[in-house]
Amino acid sequence: MVQPATAGSAWPEPAPLDPRTAPVPDYGSGTLAELLPTLAAGQGVPGLAAGLALEPADRVCVFLVDGLGWELLKAHPDEAPFLTSLLASSRGGTGAPIAAGFPSTTATSLASVGTGLPPGEHGLPGYTVLDPDTGALMNQLRWRPWTDPHLWQPYPTVFQLADAAGVHTCQVSAPDFQHTPLTKIALSGGTFHGRLTGEDRMDFAAAQLGAADRSLVYTYYSEVDGKGHRFGVDSDAWRGQLMYVDRLAQRLAEQLPPRSVLYVTADHGMIDLPFDPDSRIDFDEDWELRAGVAVLGGEGRARHLYAVPGAAGDVAAVWREVVGDRMWVATREEAIDAGWFGPHVDERVRGRIGDVVAAACDDVAIVASETEPNESAMVGLHGSMTAVEQLVPLLEVRT
Fold it and tell me: Is residue 184 predicted with pLDDT exceeding 80?
């Protein structure tokens, strides 16, 4: 039994979380990185292994909905009746989700999907990370400052491997994404087809599925994530987008040609955080958290901290003391050894990972109101290893 504090005594300070206890994604058998290799291997593409227990199909379509987390979908059956009806089909009929990978953020997840590799190998281990060759903070979603994409991520995509093996391969997405560096290094291979509306994407994706005996089609929708960031996942705007995506998925499913399978998945979930100092700790105004940090990377719920020379140990100690009961705080080596970024981290990627990495396990974010005003103003956030951010559906429709 816990005894009450007596006069003159104080509650003991909570112990910092052990970073080895963080719920590391099940790399190799349960993440987004295994999806396309499994599907393409089932189509006879050489050099790929099936990490997920999914039945092969000649014609495969992956519909990725940005921000459609597993827990968010389960919490909104009225807004998404069609997708809800498919929950039992998730992950090959097990009714279980898969994991995004760490950090649970779009650039990292899309690279994991397209390359079939975990973050430690494809090399996009965060929203913003330090380029050790230049010392610049690299935004891997917007690709700023400019960096040669194929030096940054040199591995072939699964789409490229499938196309080379004679599988009819294409991506159907917003026209603006066609020439982005992220598309080039993560989602290229075969042909890109730009379509403005969600309905056009669904119709065209279905037509492409039936264009050959073997086909691998990818299509994407972003505004569930967009409305979540701007208004939160508890908003009417977000729920309206979920309703729209539900209709899109049903529209696509109803047009599947014979010998086809559709998988609906996502890159991460999302959590709303109130705008108060306890939930949003402002790095730009907190002298303790700033001490010894030369560059702040990552995002609010998954931070990369790049220390001034010789200060990494002190930065880790201070962050553990200040936020260690609400965030898993690990040194670079601890995070790598614990497998946060996958079972292997390429040498070229090590320096991109922070000297210290901090991942939220509580309803908290480290924002930066002056240096990151747009990101700090977002209602919905993601990036860490909590279930609401990390778990994503893998819903199946098969003909």
Answer: yes
